[in-house]
Amino acid sequence: MAKLKLAAGVEPIRKEHCGCTFQHSRIGQTIMSSQKNDRTRNTKQNSRKQNATHATTHWRNLSAAEKLNWSNFAATYPVPTKANPAKFLSGYQLFIKRQSYLFLNDDSLAQFMTAPTPGNLTLGEYNVTIDQTENCIDVTMPYIKNFGIIPMPGQFMLIKILPYSVTSGQFFPIITQTIEILESYIDGLFVSLHFLGDFKNIIFSVYLSKPFNQSVTYTGTKTRYMGCFTSKTFLQLTDTPDSYVGQAGKKVVVKANETGLEFIPDTAGGLTCETLTTCPKIISIDQAILTLQNMAFNSGQSSLPPLNYGLLYNKYAYMDVRNLLPVGWIIPSYPEIEALKTYLGGGAVTGGKIKETNFAFWNSPNTGATNETKFNMRGAGYRVGSGGYTSFKLGARMPSSYDLGYGQYGWNVAGNTSADGFSGITLGYKDGVSVRPRKSSTTLSNGQSGTMTGNNGIIYRTICINGIEWLADNLAETKFRTGEDVPLVTDNAAWAALVTAGYCYPNGSASNV
């Protein structure tokens, strides 16, 4: 990401500035070439020639051992030539290039490097991307001098970065990217760099292209040299003095009049999650919720909030790819429910072992009910494909994931005088039934209980039976995992015509949920 920083509220640059003459245009500001500017460019070219001549002279004064050291270094850490990436610089060429970049960065203060050594940074230890970080370089003036225009948000530029070590003589592979101007700031054109590795002694030679309006890098796109930079923090490149270390507990923001920066309390704009966790009121609420949750689970009475019969779903809802269940929970398979029946002693007694014992959710006499498994099955009844409701407080049905091609295989539990049984049954795709999922894997042992938090935020009870953790309440979700709502369908004709996901209330009443 490149950040465009334009001085708002400041008189636009006019006339001559830093050897450039500015004028407004429909795309920002442009620069007019002048004879003086040409002379400046020729002066720079002459300076580079003098630096190269100086470096060549210094090479001749190196000892044979020092020259051999450079040759060995060039062979160990090869640097490709610009003309042919398959060819690499010799020790002499690497020495000249190294000194040239030193002069570009430090000018007359540059010192010759006679003994190259490998730096801490090696191939594979670093990565450079363009995004918003605290490692910034300011390319405002060189960009204006080269292209005479400041890029605007929505435009693109080609960037090339050549990193090299200040202390070792190493050059690292060129990073080439297309970057987009995304944001406007207040004092220049900044490029932010993101690294992996130690870049304290790394200098970046940066090249940029003129702005273009497509995110495609053409082979003919040319870049121009912007200069050598060492990365600095955002604050170091703004109006804040380098010596200013900030104010404890405050953050930096741009002033309202955009003339600089100021420090404001970090809590400005509202409470944060960090401050809320230490609030006595929040702590007391958390403790109350935890106490109520423990009371509910320890007594085995209900979920949070309490549920009665849950909801009824058609096949299109409980098998929808958007997922009616939270991550880690699935509709049980046919063999898994058969294994549950076998583990509990067969179909003749399984129904009684999974049904609640009282008459609150089953009609009398609720034969055989012991609920010794703590499965808490309740008589929600079911809705037939034609739209009518049946068997409320007399029976319950739940599906498996096994699609027969003409219906969904499932199980029926009854609560009348002969019903401590548990039998398989074919469910129509449009039948509305109770859903009892199971967890993909569990750390619980047989008889241990847990919880599941649904897509709606409901906290359900769970129970481990035969090594599988089951939901111990009928599902009552009205949202898919994606956040989309599951349609509520109350009209019988609409339910009968439904070939998409839908849910309804047990026996048609919202009070039964």
What are the SSEs and their pairings?
Elements: E1 2-5, E2 15-17, E3 20-25, E4 28-32, H1 35-60, H2 64-76, H3 91-106, E5 129-138, H4 140-147, E6 156-165, E7 175-185, E8 188-194, E9 202-208, E10 224-229, E11 250-254, E12 261-265, H5 273-276, H6 280-299, E13 312-313, H7 315-318, E14 329-330, H8 334-343, H9 347-354, E15 382-383, E16 389-390, E17 395-403, E18 408-414, E19 422-427, E20 438-439, E21 449-453, E22 459-465, E23 468-471, H10 492-497, E24 503-504
Helix pairs in contact: 1-3, 2-3
Overview of this protein structure:
This protein is of the alpha+beta class. It folds into three domains: 2-15 and 128-237, no CATH class; 271-301; 302-512, no CATH class. It is built from ten helices and 24 strands. The strands form eight sheets. The chain has a seven-stranded mixed β-sheet. Helix 1 (35-60) crosses helix 3 and helix 2 (64-76) crosses helix 3 (91-106). The longest helix has 26 residues, at 35-60. It is elongated and about 110 Å long. It starts with a strand and ends in a 9-residue tail after the last strand. The model is unreliable at 1-18, 34-41, 122-132 and 239-245 (pLDDT under 50).
